[in-house]
Automatic annotation (TrEMBL):
Residues 20-257 form the ABC transporter domain. CDD domains: ABC_MJ0796_LolCDE_FtsE (cd03255). Keywords: ATP-binding, Nucleotide-binding, Transport. This is ABC transporter ATP-binding protein. GO terms for cellular component: membrane protein complex; plasma membrane. SMART domains: AAA. The keyword ATP-binding applies. GO terms for molecular function: ATP binding; ATP hydrolysis activity; transmembrane transporter activity. It comes from the Bacteria.
Length: 267
């Protein structure tokens, strides 16, 4: 069940305001009998300078929500804002510029350019924007993510985890105010996963960036400030100050209760 328009949307904003928000966000794929309602009138507000995690079963609409919030996909109905700008009303050119200047996106499928090597992939968005990377920051990201000796490799010459780390570095390189990360630790061993989570946490705590991260891992979600739970294209619950144990418990309740808006009383 999505929150009524009158009440505060899940992911309720702090005094710093909202980095992104949506109202009545609906996304349908296909039509007729094969139509899929990936998002069903979602109201959400992503607090600025916070780390929000998005969880939910496979197919519940997590990636679709991220893509729509980041202006990477069109919506079927509803409105989406980045900061004070309603992006659902923007022309493609303006949207492209806004995305480029303000958003970093780590795709579930990495989306690396096969003909470019690792470091070229990392700096590509900035190259396109005609910006010079901050060398010190870039070095720090590359070293933290353990990519130093892979910079000249093309994606096909990298392992899945290494490609994921390149995608991570690319999203962080320009220090965008808003970072979307779709299962950024999905292909990483626990040490590399912790490095990525540490970087995202640092982006929020030290640099004031806003992070929205999809994850299936309660331990990863525990690094966030707030978890939003999706089921069947709706936000069905949220949890502030999550611990891995509490998230796991909540997931157990949901897996037995289908699309129920609230956790059942008894297990
Ligand atoms: N391009 C598309 N065309 C048709 N249906 C789509 C398309 N993209 C997603 N869907 C459908 O929309 C629903 C939500 O998909 P989405 O990718 O957002 O799920 P998800 O929560 O990210 O899942 P996962 O955890 O597996 O990544 C799914 O039922 C999916 O099959
Ligand atoms: Mg997904």
């Amino acid at each position: 069940m999505s929150t009524p328009a009158a009440g505060p949307a899940p992911g309720t904003a702090t005094a710093d305001g909202t980095a992104a928000r949506a109202r009545g966000l609906t996304k349908a794929y296909g039509s007729g009998e094969t139509a899929v309602l990936a998002l069903d009138s979602v109201d959400v507000a992503i607090a600025r300078g916070r780390f929000t995690a998005v969880m939910g079963p496979s197919g519940s609409g997590k990636s679709t929500l991220m893509h729509c919030l980041a202006g990477l996909d069109t919506v079927s109905a509803g409105e989406v804002w980045i900061g004070d700008t309603e992006i659902t009303g923007l022309k493609e050119r303006e949207l492209t510029r806004l995305r480029r200047d303000r958003i970093g996106f780590m795709f579930q499928s990495f989306n690396l350019i096969p003909t470019l090597n690792a470091v070229e992939n990392i700096t590509l968005p900035m190259d396109i924007a005609g910006q010079k990377p901050d060398r010190k920051w870039l070095d720090q990201i590359i070293d933290t993510l353990g990519l130093r000796d892979r910079l000249k490799h093309r994606p096909a010459q990298l392992s899945g985890g290494q490609q994921q780390r390149v995608a991570c570095a690319r999203a962080l390189a320009s220090r965008p105010e808003l970072i979307f990360a779709d299962e950024p630790t999905g292909n990483l061993d626990s040490r590399a996963g912790l490095e990525v989570l540490g970087i995202l946490r640092e982006a929020v705590d030290s640099l004031g960036q806003t992070v929205v991260m999809v994850t299936h891992d309660p331990n990863a979600a525990a690094h966030s400030d707030l978890v939003l739970f999706l089921a069947d294209g709706r936000i069905v619950d949220e949890m502030a100050e999550p611990t891995a144990e509490a998230v796991l418990e909540r997931m157990r309740l949901f897996s037995g209760s289908g699309t129920q808006a609230t956790a059942p009383e008894e297990e």
